[in-house]
Amino acid sequence: MTGRDLPGEGATAPLSFAQEGCWHLSRLLPDDTSYNIRAGLRLRGELDVEALRRALADRIARQEILRTTYHDSDGGAPMQVVGGLPATALLELDVDDVPPDGRESEAMRVVLAEVDRPIDLTAGPVHRTVLVRLSPAEHLLVQVSHHIAVDWLSSLVADWELGTLYAAHAAGRTAELPPLRAQYRHYAERERAHAGGPAMRRGLGYWRTKLAGAPGGPRVCPGYRNPAAAVLEAAMVKFPLPADAMRRLIALARAERTTPFVVTLATWAATLFRHTGQDDMVLVSDVSTRANSQFEGLIGMFVNAIALRVQTDGGLSFRQLVARVRRTVMESVMHAVPFQRIVEESHSGRDWGWDWKHLNHLGFVVHPYGTESSRRAGPDWGLELRWLSVPVARSHVELNMHLVTTLGGDWWGHLTYRPRTMPAAAAARLAGGYATLVAEASREPDVPLARLACEA
User: Fold this and answer.
1) Which segments within 158-279 are labelled E, that is strand?
2) Under 8 Å CB-to-CB from 259, ≥6 apart: which residues?
3) Nearest to residue 68, comparing CAs of 77, 80, 85?
4) Which entry of 135, 258, 286, 410 is 20 to 30 Å from 77 by CA?
5) CATH code at position 325
6) Which residues pair with 364 in a beta bridge?
7) Helix 339-347 and helix 198-210, axial crossing angle in degrees, nearest 10
8) 125 in the same domain as 245
9) Which DSSP state fits 267?
């Protein structure tokens, strides 16, 4: 497997700005696993393990980013270096000798241990795949990648390619994948080449003004501390959003000429306002940077974080808040600069009038392609595939709301929080309050926020 001549092997490039942020965090916290992105499948049926091994090797050969490592350079700026194939593309573990009543729990223990094993960005690999055998007809397939190498849309690309390659190898034929027009290192080089000049200075000037005096994130449980919980330890509340209410909310978005992202973000800001009383907050979200079609088929970190400063008060109606959030989102996207540049500027000794650490407090992301849907769609493996939920164990963001959709169009909220600063009961109340406010605001968008119900 290691004797193949691979395109790009030995090539070097600068890091993209998003990658550079991951790199600096990894240097500060080398054993942290907050950026270990995990994806799991439960496979039922007769799995062709050799076909899976070959499919994984082919995907690593095709996508340079999966065999790239990261290093300090003589000039000080980190560099990415494309390598060859790893010694093995698949770690195979077996629990079928465990008694049946304890086999599932042992399999998940093995999975969690693997996804929470630190990734060394310099030694590599930055991506690994684990196959846990429960029986000859049932396996868990878990892929773990450092965020420096992937984003959310990358998981869709990775799943589709792996399914296509596996199906071809299992059938004894050659897979037909469209040729890649570029690699991730080309994207990083392009981003760096366009990073300077007047547009960057104007963008940084906008953010300096926009974030001046920005407060820290709202505290749902001020004064609460659980010393038994680690600083970055995370837990999650998963909850459904009422289907009728979401249909009304999306109809409201259309009527206001905006997007589901804006109305669901406005609902989250309103929920935090009602639960904490704080009327000024900065939330961080991700936007895709795959603007160029040549990068569509690539795995990589094609995201940029944007700060969204939302100000509200109880006298505003929800419709008015939606209009305010719409303007905020549009301005933030229009003046977007690499998030790492904002962090660098605030660290450089200039007085920006705010603390960049505030940006680690609140997050909000909508995954329009869903979670379950992305794991079930795609090529036919000849097996029964079910999405495997792998819990999040750590997070750099203190309170993070992710909204996802299922294949049937249902909406779910995934609220990640830190048990160190919030008890589980409070997180459940906040999640329930969000679902309630979705229903109330979509039903009566012209009622002042202070009068909308927001308790579970």
Assistant:
1) 235-240
2) 253
3) 80
4) 286
5) 3.30.559.30
6) 401
7) 70
8) no
9) H
Range of the domain at 244: 198-373+387-451
pLDDT for residue 376 = 42
Long-range contacts of 434-440 (CB under 8 A, 24+ apart): 434/267, 434/268, 434/271, 434/401, 435/239, 435/240, 435/241, 435/242, 437/267, 437/270, 437/271, 437/274, 438/241, 438/242, 438/245, 438/246, 438/249, 438/264, 438/267, 439/242, 439/244, 439/245
Q: Do 149 and 235 fall into the same domain? A: no
At a CB cut-off of 8 Å and minimum separation 6, what does 198 contact?
Answer: none
Q: Nearest-CA neighbor of 372 among 219, 245, 240?
A: 240
For the entire predicted model, the pTM comes to 0.90
Q: Is the pLDDT of residue 378 over 70?
A: no
Determine, yes or no, domain membership for 241: yes
Query: Are the C-beta atoms of residues 154 and 302 closer than 8 Å to each other?
Result: yes
pLDDT tens for 308-365 read 999 999 999 999 999 999 999 999 999 989 988 888 877 655 555 555 565 668 899 9
Q: Which two three-digit tokens encode residue 118?
A: 């630190």
Task: Say if residues 188 and 15 touch (Cβ distance below 8 Å).
Answer: yes
Question: What separation, in Å, do the N-terminal and C-terminal C-alpha atoms of the chain show?
Answer: 55
Q: What is the pLDDT of residues 332-347, one digit of tens each?
A: 999 989 988 888 877 6
